[in-house]
Input
Amino acid sequence: MRTRILGLLFCAMIAPNYVFAQASDSIKVAVGDIYKGSTLERDLKIIYKAADIDVEFIYLPNERAIQTAVSGQYDALDLRIDTLDEEETLIRIDVPIVVMDVYLLSINDDFYKGLDDVNDKTLVSILGARYSNIAKVYKKRHLVKSEKQAALMLTTGRADLWLAPHRTYLKAKEEFPNIKIASPSVYKQYLYHYVHVSKSHLVEPLEMSVKAFNQTRSIN
Output
């Protein structure tokens, strides 16, 4: 019953002044394997259904998913950070679906107010991750290629702190239960849905739908 009520509320939110997609519109979304097992497909189904757009999901290796969306082989791309704005063939749905909080992780009981408190500490983070750049001024920063490498550096004492998103912490804690959150959120990274330019007429209805979807989640 609660789900039904939320669904009705969701539809009511997007109905006023809403520009609906054409009845014939359908979208094939390229999804990177990194999202297997997540709630992404479920969430996007809700968003597309509210916009009256048929949607299909194709799972691919991560980089190939990006390439097929950029080339137009598929119509849209899962969730990514805004660096894909540089791709001329992709348009960002300019309402984030996920806000990813980044924390300092530790294996001791110390708690830090922020990065300013850890100038003398050795940090480890993931190579290529945008949030890693917030600690680039630190001389004792190590960049590694995988979360497992970062966890091992932290738990073996080769690093004092690990800069990582909350979902990475939850995953790592299963194998390394002594890892703890050692700060408030020090960075927020926003993830957006992208569509190919050939589907640009769907940007407005999808943005309206994402806004309504985010509101129902906050109510829930």
